[in-house]
Automatic annotation (TrEMBL), chains A, B:
The keyword Isomerase does not apply. It is an enzyme of class 3 (hydrolase). Binds 1 zinc ion per subunit. Binds 1 Mg(2+) ion per subunit. Its cofactor is Zn(2+); Mg(2+). It is found in: Cytoplasm. Catalyzes the hydrolysis of the adenine ring of phosphoribosyl-AMP. Its EC number is 3.5.4.19. NCBIfam families: PRK00051.1. It catalyses: 1-(5-phospho-beta-D-ribosyl)-5'-AMP + H2O = 1-(5-phospho-beta-D-ribosyl)-5-[(5-phospho-beta-D-ribosylamino)methylideneamino]imidazole-4-carboxamide. This is Phosphoribosyl-AMP cyclohydrolase. Residues 29-102 form the Phosphoribosyl-AMP cyclohydrolase domain. Pathway: Amino-acid biosynthesis; L-histidine biosynthesis; L-histidine from 5-phospho-alpha-D-ribose 1-diphosphate: step 3/9.
Length: 140, 140
């Protein structure tokens, strides 16, 4: 069944996109996607995102060589989140880990009880696999 | 290696959280989490989120019975996204599908070229598995 859906890019023109390893199913990263980034991803078969901090379109792996070949793009029920199913070269994370989600949370301590979340700390354990040396890949 | 991390809940006090099926690796949904929702999830072992539309904390499955038992919580490199690794009862999606990402994108057409993303349409194909009847589960 084919259907048309309008993607809800919201007030800032972006939707979150989850990248998942096509082979292992591992969740690799989450980044944001503009309409142009989605179009470029679909056209080229390589994952494009929109950087909120640098305020620009970027192709994943352009600097590091760790590109993502997109096998499938999915859209969720509310059409406000995307899923990129990808073949990941090297590692997805700038820290050198295969996945950005390389830390497991062991404890949560909320800083105060008046609704201010800024003091919320978590105890984490590194459980991820480091697959490259970021200093070697991103050196100037 | 244990470490302390401050979760970056951002201006609106929320971070996106990806829920992944612990057994199959399937990406089930994305929703938003407040500091309180994270604390409750960690305390109870059941996934809690914060609804932006209803403006309230919610426990997944409270109405439908389709709860998520959280095996692990991960935090990403920038500490602004969470990953819930869960045992999912029934289906994660209110449409009756196992995953909210039940539609694959076959085509992308950007509405106009002046940067307005509101007209961006995608052609989708339903590739997901429906595991329950939403009318039966959510009836008044």
């Amino acid at each position: 069944m084919e259907d048309d859906v309008t993607v809800d890019f919201g007030a800032d023109g972006l939707v979150p996109a989850v990248a998942q390893d096509a082979e292992t199913g591992e969740v690799l990263m989450l980044a944001y996607v503009s309409a142009e980034a989605l179009e470029r991803t679909h056209e080229t078969g390589r994952a494009h995102y929109y950087s909120r901090s640098r305020d620009e379109l970027w192709e994943k792996g352009k600097t590091s060589g760790h590109v993502q070949r997109v096998e499938e793009i999915r859209v969720d029920c509310d059409a406000d989140t995307l899923l990129y199913v990808v073949e990941q070269d090297g590692g997805a994370c700038h820290t050198g880990h295969r996945s950005c989600f390389y830390r497991a949370i062991d404890g949560v301590s909320v800083g105060d009880t008046n609704g201010d979340s800024s003091g919320t700390m978590v105890d984490v354990e590194n459980v991820g696999e480091q697959v490259f040396d970021p200093d070697a890949v991103y050196e100037a």
